[in-house]
Specification:
By secondary structure, this protein is mainly α. About 55% of the residues lie in helices and about 0% in strands.
Length: about 80
């Protein structure tokens, strides 16, 4: 997931940066930095999004299956 996709998700839920930050349990400045491309979307942030989003969207949050398995171990 890149910064543009992150921003699209926020917009699709019609949230301000402050609302989205609270929704994800992070600061507004972190959301702003991700959206501006100054901070990459971490695996932890992807996992937070996965918990609150439709499961069908989870795969698009990760760059490859190895990252998914690190956050959500497959047994």
């Amino acid at each position: 997931m890149n910064n543009e996709r992150f921003k699209q998700i926020r917009h699709s839920h019609e949230m301000t940066q402050e609302q989205f930050a609270a929704f994800l349990g992070m600061g507004r400045s972190t959301v702003a930095n991700i959206e501006a491309g100054r901070t990459p979307v971490s695996d932890r942030t992807r996992a937070r999004l996965a918990k609150v989003m439709d499961v069908s969207q989870v795969l698009s949050f990760f760059d490859d299956i190895n990252k998914i398995e690190k956050v959500f171990p497959i047994k």
